[in-house]
Amino acid sequence: MSFRGAVVAVCLLAAWSLPSFAHKPSDSYLTVTSIRGEQTLSAQWDIALRDLEHAVGLDQDGDGRITWGELKASRRAIESYALSRLSMEAIARGDRARCSITPLALLVDQHVDGHYAVLRLAIECPFEPAELAVHYGLLFDVDPNHRGLLDVVRAEGGQALVLTNDRRTTTISLTAPEHLAQFRSFLDEGIWHIWKGYDHILFLLTLLLPAVVVYRGSQWQPRASLRDATVDVLKVVTAFTVAHSITLSLAVIGVVWLPSRLVESGIALTVLLGAANNLIPVIRERRWLVAFAFGLIHGLGFASVLSDLGLQGGNLALALVGFNAGVEAGQLAIVLVLVPVAYGLRATSFYRRAFMPAGAVAIGAVALYWFAMRATGLVLQ
């Protein structure tokens, strides 16, 4: 295949992926509070305005802005849509009964990725539940990749889980939190986040593709041994892992915070710079330093999943460890698939003279698009 053909093929593949980045995957935050001895529970449900606009239509005058007046005017439609997609059942001593959910108030709040409608709810159960079955179906008809982050709060200890299109129903013990289930839930979420985070994947590609070659004499040359390539990969991946783990942890506990638009624009810029360095290598030997520096920015992007949950103490630690472990597992899977293939192709002229530059051009073009859209706010990622 010629260089021109390689560029066209890779650019077509990149262009196909662009619609996936038109909007940030939808999410909501449902916090249920239970008090021992009470059969009535309280809840707060935060749903992004951008998602409600897609689902029920909030922008009545079509000016591209959702005002407080428009939100209040849509209150009944929001409540009807949301509550038709949420139900709960109380379980205790072999009995099971449906709880009624009553909306109490509509508020608005700012999250790291924009404004959210806040529904305050009262959950009336026929008896005090020992377990709570939650049936969740919000926004799956609009976005199959939607995530519902559920946090059940109780004085004896809480539990947080992620509800998805494949896992719409869960049962949570209100007497003995199931920590293993929470860890597994956030482990899966971490894996999903890295595999669906195409900007993170493209950044990894800019770091991993040059690991099996070395730039000498104004062109890419194959590395002499698998050991050399493996050492380079380990340095790069370890640096990236350490860096994003640091900022992920700091952001989730509230020590570091940056606006979502700035973080997402920064991530796109790291992809662009990584691609540019593969096209015109400036940093050749210590790419692990680049991985570490840019990994700090990617960690802030990972943190957006957990920052708005409001988890505390051991509950937060468990979710953080599980999510971070999932990110690492997802990242490791990419490395294990990509590096052996790249190593096997490293000596071919296609890989060194066509794929490397063509891939850099295609990735750079996509990253430039993302950066322009995110920096200007025309696309919310």
Residue runs with pLDDT of under 50 for 5 or more positions: 1-23
- The beta-strand count equals 11
N-to-C terminal Cα separation, in Å?
A: 35 Å
Please summarize the sheet with the most strands. 9 strands, mixed
What does this structure look like?
The chain has helices spanning 3-17, 49-55, 68-73, 75-83, 179-196, 198-208, 226-252, 260-279, 287-307, 313-345, 349-376, and strands at 27-33, 40-48, 86-92, 95-111, 114-124, 131-136, 147-153, 159-163, 169-173, 213-216, 219-222. With 381 residues, it is of the alpha+beta class. The chain folds into 2 domains: 27-177, no CATH class; 188-376. The protein has a 9-stranded mixed sheet. Strands 10-11 form a two-stranded antiparallel sheet. Strand 3 (86-92) and strand 4 (95-111) form a beta hairpin. Helix 7 runs parallel beside helix 9 (287-307) and helix 8 runs antiparallel to helix 11 (349-376).
Keywords summarizing the entry:
381 residues; 22% strand; 2 domains; 11 strands; alpha+beta; 51% helix; single chain; two-stranded antiparallel ribbon; nine-stranded mixed sheet
Helices, strands, pairings?
Layout (H helix, E strand, L loop, with lengths): L2 H15 L9 E7 L6 E9 H7 L12 H6 L1 H9 L2 E7 L2 E17 L2 E11 L6 E6 L10 E7 L5 E5 L5 E5 L5 H18 L1 H11 L4 E4 L2 E4 L3 H27 L7 H20 L7 H21 L5 H33 L3 H28 L5
Parallel strand pairs: 1-7
Antiparallel strand pairs: 1-2, 2-5, 3-4, 3-6, 4-5, 6-9, 7-8, 10-11
Helix pairs in contact: 1-11, 5-10, 6-8, 7-9, 7-10, 8-9, 8-11
